[in-house]
Write a structure and sequence with these properties.
6 helices; 32% strand; Jelly Rolls; alpha+beta; six-stranded antiparallel sheet
Length: 337
């Protein structure tokens, strides 16, 4: 009820004035966890996705659509939504031998983790990066990038971008088409061959290395101590800072021994997981997902996570953890129930 102060206007007239002025009373605004629908975990089994990938190869080409990409959508999203989690957009990008995806750039950070196939090439700000199964290739925000495929069979990689973070912040911009110009100069990869000796140069917001070979990450895993959840994990880093490869995307390779159950873990950050090898299951709150190589699933924020490996297993994980950390909003609880 409106408390009268002598005004002769009715409540509906007052509310009409609020609507005209785009005003809403705070006491009627619903805030808190119930203000938006909860996210659901998404899972994309390779056994189900592979036929769809083959059909997409027949349906169109990069000459027509620029990028042949199948986006992986949050199952709880509304019609027209295309995010995978709150801030992360995951997709599968596909090239057949001889195809090319022309150069462009955009403010969003993106990474490519090769799931199947070998022999594609990505050029990032003038530096070429071979794409082999298990490799991680980055294309930081506003870096020029293009892809072409020199292999003998189709190649499929996982794309992860921070598109929805930019949409939330108002920094999203359409793609800037090539040809590339104003390309910065970077030292060759050989300049970073030693982890303890790097060029004397100013560090920018992202790593000066754009390709992280699978063999290097696997070799590092062999000597990694157990992490806080009991798994072994290595982080893909900017060699100049030891921090994340890009300012808003952080990536890890995780290894689980056969029979291992990790310690339950809960975090305010979101993640996307791709199974590299092995078989097992992940419990996310009350949901259990069985997985095998090339399966992909999402880990929305504030859910309790526990992995179990039936055999020696590895998974690639990318997360927006760094965004929450820098904003002072990161929570990580081990032993959560």
């Amino acid at each position: 009820m409106i408390v009268s102060d002598g005004s002769t206007r009715t409540e509906e007239e007052i509310r009409s004035s609020w609507r005209d002025m785009h005003v809403k009373p705070l006491w009627e605004i619903k805030m808190g966890p119930g203000a938006t629908p909860p996210q659901r975990v998404g899972q994309w089994k390779w056994s189900a996705m592979e036929p769809l990938i083959m059909e997409a190869l027949k349906l169109t080409s990069p000459d027509i659509v620029e990028r042949r990409v199948l986006s992986l959508i949050d199952p709880s999203g509304a019609e027209g939504d295309f995010q995978t989690t709150t801030n992360l957009n995951a997709a599968l990008q596909i090239l057949r031998p001889g195809e090319a995806a022309r150069a462009h750039r955009h403010p969003m950070n993106a990474l490519r983790f090769v799931l199947s196939g070998n022999g594609a090439v990505t050029r990032v700000d003038g530096k070429t990066a071979l794409m082999m199964e298990g490799d991680l290739v980055t294309t930081p925000g506003w870096a020029w990038h293009e892809h072409w495929h020199e292999g003998n069979e189709p190649i499929v990689w996982l794309d992860v971008l921070d598109v929805h973070l930019h949409l939330h912040l108002g920094t999203f911009r359409p793609n800037d088409p090539g040809p590339p110009h104003d390309v910065p100069a970077y030292p060759p990869e050989e300049a970073f061959a030693s982890a303890n000796v790097v060029p004397d140069m100013t560090s920018g917001p992202h790593s000066p290395i754009f390709r992280y070979p699978a063999a290097d990450a696997v070799a590092a895993l062999r000597h990694a101590p157990p992490s806080r959840d009991g798994s072994r994990r290595v982080r893909y880093v900017n060699p100049l800072t030891g921090g994340p490869i890009m300012s808003m995307l952080d990536s890890y390779l995780v290894e689980l021994d056969a029979g291992m159950h990790t310690i339950p873990f809960r975090t305010s950050a979101n993640a996307i997981c791709a199974i590299v090898s092995g078989r097992g299951a992940t419990q996310i709150d009350d949901l259990t997902l069985d997985w095998e190589p090339r399966d992909i699933f999402s880990l929305p924020h504030d859910m309790t996570i526990r992995h179990h490996a039936e055999e020696p297993s590895r998974m690639f994980v990318t997360t927006d953890r760094e965004v929450y950390r820098r904003l002072g909003l990161l929570t990580e609880i081990f032993g959560a129930s």
